[in-house]
Design goal:
This protein is α+β, with helices and mostly antiparallel strands and about 325 residues long. It is about 15% helix and about 40% strand.
Length: about 325
């Protein structure tokens, strides 16, 4: 390889890194004018984005302020052990043991009770939280005290608008809201959301006619495909200098692949270059679904994603 070829390859890698880091530029994060900030029967809570496309919600745990990553890739609330202690989240009443233990990605973690959890005008009441050291959480310069997972999001039938930075929580269970009709008039495509046996959210996808599904993960800053899946549909892959970090400290080299015919449900995306890696087994195993990749915040933001856990749909535009 000549020096010019090496420089060209490094330039491509550098551009790929920049594309990852600048997916949601700060200048675009103001509220979208003209978009509704209310949904009948729901309470709205504002979120903000930190560097690396992390969706952050400001909350109070037992009255103490905290920042939680809104993470549809987690089945439960997970709280940093130090943040839990400063919020007065203690073991069960006997003072010796926690409520129970739960297993996450092979690790057995203690579960405690937060007496109150609030966000804006929304009160979630007392909530069980899983405790874990936060060394794997990274939101750039924004400290994160834990993650807000699907247990709370599904219990309150959340509607997550990734573009307008609003999450709606249902407070009137008798009220029926059909977002499909409204979304259709706004030219959104409705894609059915599936809740797998292990709790994961997935949506159908296809590349070159080969069907698979994508794991819908708002905790992932980047949409990334499994290397074996792209190879099975003969997508050429080129190396980069980027690495991806997963739970349990797993790290993988990230390559890049040009995908020209990705369909998410009935939504056809423009041709684009995507990250490609050998996804860990705990990511690929989502119930009986064949996971071809992770649908992350870059695409959810770019295509104005609305995750409707009341009607179990994803809307893209």
């Amino acid at each position: 390889m000549t020096n010019d070829e090496r420089r060209s390859k490094c330039t491509r890698c550098f551009r790929f890194v920049l594309a990852i880091l600048l997916i949601i530029p700060p200048s675009t994060l103001a509220s979208v004018k003209g978009k509704p900030t209310q949904l009948n029967g729901f309470k709205a809570v504002r979120i903000h984005y930190s560097p690396l496309n992390k969706m952050i919600m400001s909350v109070r745990i037992n009255g103490r302020r905290a920042s939680l990553l809104v993470d549809t890739g987690s089945n439960q609330i997970i709280l940093d052990t130090a943040a839990a202690a400063s919020s007065g989240v203690q073991p069960s009443q006997d003072g010796l043991r926690y409520i129970r233990q739960t297993r996450i990605n092979g690790r057995l973690l203690p579960v405690a009770l937060a007496q109150s959890l609030t966000a804006g005008a929304m009160s979630f009441g007392s909530t069980q939280v899983t405790l874990r050291e936060s060394r794997h959480w990274d939101a750039g310069d924004t400290p994160i005290d834990g993650v807000l997972g699907l247990d709370v999001l599904t219990r309150h039938k959340a509607v997550i608008n990734c573009r307008t930075k609003l999450i709606f929580f249902k407070v009137d269970q008798a009220r029926q809201v059909d977002l499909s009709a409204v979304a259709s008039t706004e030219k959104f495509t409705r894609i059915p959301l599936r809740r797998e046996e292990n709790g994961a959210l997935t949506v159908p996808c296809s590349i070159r006619g080969q069907a698979a599904c994508l794991f819908v993960d708002t905790g992932a800053f980047l949409t990334i495909f499994d290397q074996a899946f792209l190879k099975s549909v003969a997508i050429p892959i080129e190396a980069t200098r980027v690495s991806a970090h997963f739970a349990l400290g797993a790290s993988r080299k990230v390559s890049a692949g040009q995908v020209n015919d990705l369909k998410i449900g009935g939504f056809k995306t423009p041709s684009a270059k995507f990250g490609v890696t050998a996804l860990p087994n705990f990511t690929l195993r989502q119930g009986n679904a064949r996971v071809g990749g992770i649908l992350g915040m870059d695409m959810l933001y770019k295509y104005q994603g609305i995750i409707d856990l009341d009607g179990m749909n994803l809307f893209l535009k």
